[in-house]
Amino acid sequence: MGPEAETRRENRQRRPGHRRGQHGFDGCFLKFSTDAATQYLKRTTNAQLTTAFAPIMQQSLDKVGATRYYAQLATTYNHMPLGKSVQAD
Q1: Measured CA distances, 14 to 1, 20, 67, 69 (Å)
Q2: Residues 1-59: pLDDT tens digits?
Q3: End-to-end CA distance of the chain
Q4: Taking CA 46 as the corner, what is the angle to CA 44 and CA 47, rounded to the nearest 5 degrees?
């Protein structure tokens, strides 16, 4: 390790609260919860992503027959006295 790298390492270690893995930001998302960034993206992009991907997913499920098999499974399950019925759609 060269002298410049050593100086940078020492300076990082002297900073209050510095820990390995922190990247120089105050962790604004992480102050509230460990999944705050995920929740933000989910809240702000979920509707658009659902709209964009729903037709693609439906086409793929129809192509392999998954929707038909699930409908058959749901019908059979609903005829059993297990409690709550499920919807096939």
Answers
A1: 18, 12, 60, 62
A2: 666 766 666 666 555 554 555 454 455 544 567 888 899 999 999 999 999 999 999 99
A3: 62
A4: 100
Say how many residues make up the chain: 89
Q: C-alpha angle with apex 57: 35 to 40, nearest 5 degrees? A: 20
pTM higher than 0.70 for the full model?
A: no
CA angle 46, 67, 41 (to 5 degrees): 10
Crossing angle for the helix pair 36-64 and 66-78, to the nearest 10 degrees: 90
Q: What are the residue boundaries of the structural domains of the chain, listed by start?
A: 53-89
